[in-house]
Design a protein that fits this description.
Layout (H helix, E strand, L loop, with lengths): L6 E12 L2 E12 L3 E5 L6 H8 L7 E6 L2 E2 L5 H7 L1 E3 L12 H7 L10 H15 L14 H13 L5 E5 L7 H18 L2 E5 L3 H7 L2 E6 L2 E6 L1 H6 L1 H8 L6
């Protein structure tokens, strides 16, 4: 585990209400430099709302959001992303009618605004190589298999070379081989590019395998935080979510 204790993102009392419904309640979350942090919980636990809160797509009802040492509470998502926090979405976000090459190029739009075409082309090629997309660069993204499409979405986000990469259920629909390869990519991104990763994912085997720490949400509240080993043994987590599936 490579993080050095510095905190890239911190929420304090972060809360989001929708009328009488409290989607996220008094969340105190920290993401440390160099780690892969998993955010898990059953359906309706508040994961998506939390993701939208920290990326600026939803404004909090109460509490504060601090990103890279700055109070970003209420900031627009474009302003937060330009700081170096980039996210993906549950449903693949890419241009189906465009080539993979041009999709990945979109990811450099803000982070390489002053760069020339040669430098951008190099970034696209490097990103494609890391994600295993080099053979597909001149293919139309919408015609590719689902697993490749998921990688295209990740490539668009990673092309910005973010400090904090937030991945929203990136493994959905992937087979076991594809999941294993994608987890290796996450580790490479973290290790070689000093990129911290927040992973929201339903695939518990994958989360337990790749994450340094895990935060568990339940009914919009933080139920537990710890290493995968600690989370596996936490009786509250077992009762709320994990059951005995990971003892098999």
């Amino acid at each position: 585990m490579r993080y050095n204790g510095s905190t890239l993102l911190r929420t304090t009392g972060l809360t989001r209400r929708y009328g009488g419904l409290v989607a996220v309640s008094n969340l105190n979350l920290d993401i440390r430099k160099g780690e892969i942090l998993g955010l898990i919980g059953p359906n309706g636990a508040g994961k998506s709302t939390t993701f939208n809160l920290i990326s600026g797509f939803v404004k909090p009802t109460a509490g504060t959001l601090e990103v890279f040492g700055r109070d970003c509470t209420g900031w627009k998502p474009t302003k937060i992303s330009r700081m170096g926090l980039v996210r993906t979405f549950q449903h693949s976000s890419y241009m189906r009618s465009m080539k993979v090459r041009d999709n990945v190029l979109l990811g450099t739009m803000h982070s390489m605004a002053s760069a020339g075409p040669t430098e951008r082309a190099h970034r696209v090629a490097e990103t494609a190589e890391i994600l295993g997309l080099t053979p597909y660069l001149d293919e139309q993204a919408g015609t590719l298999p689902h697993g490749i499409q998921r990688l295209v979405s990740i490539a668009i986000a990673f092309a910005a070379r973010p400090t904090l990469l937030c991945l929203d259920e990136p493994l959905t629909g992937l087979n076991q081989t594809e999941v294993g390869a994608t987890l290796d990519v996450f580790r490479q991104i973290r290790d070689e590019f000093d990129c911290t990763i927040l992973l929201v994912e339903h695939n518990m085997k994958a989360v337990m395998s790749v994450c340094d720490r895990i935060v568990v949400l339940h009914h919009g509240q933080q139920l537990a935080t710890g290493t995968p080993a600690e989370i596996r043994k936490d009786e509250n987590v077992i009762a709320a979510y994990l059951g005995k599936r990971h003892d098999k």
